[in-house]
Design goal:
Elements: H1 7-11, H2 19-30, E1 34-35, H3 37-44, H4 48-57, E2 62-65, E3 68-72, H5 73-81
Antiparallel strand pairs: 1-3, 2-3
Helix pairs in contact: 3-4
C-alpha cells in the first residue's frame, strides 16, 4: 500500500540556483575554469573597470551569468602570456 505524500512536498517549487552555483555548473559543463572580474584584475594588475572594458571589447573571453561576468581563466592567462599587460 502506498503512503500519502505530505502536502508540503507537493507545493514546494524548486529553488533558483545561486549565481555561484550557476557559474560552477557552467564551468563544469564547458570544462573551462572561470574567475571573477576582481580576481582577473588582481592577476593582470589592472582595475576591475579595465577588465569590464576588455570584456565588452572582446579582449577577454567570458560570459554573463545571472547578470554577473564570469571570465575564462585561460583567456586571462593568454592575455598575460602575450605580454600585452602593463601595470596601471
Amino acid at each position: 500500500m502506498l503512503e500519502a505524500v505530505p502536502k508540503k512536498f507537493l507545493k514546494e517549487k524548486p529553488r533558483k540556483p545561486t549565481v555561484a552555483e550557476e557559474v560552477a555548473l557552467l564551468a563544469a559543463d564547458e570544462k573551462r575554469e572561470l574567475v571573477t572580474p576582481a580576481l582577473a584584475a588582481r592577476l593582470l594588475g589592472k582595475s576591475t573597470d579595465t577588465i569590464y572594458r576588455w570584456l565588452n571589447e572582446g579582449r577577454l573571453a567570458g560570459r554573463k551569468v545571472g547578470g554577473t561576468w564570469a571570465i575564462y581563466k585561460d583567456s586571462v592567462i593568454e592575455e598575460w602570456n602575450a605580454g600585452r599587460v602593463e601595470r596601471e
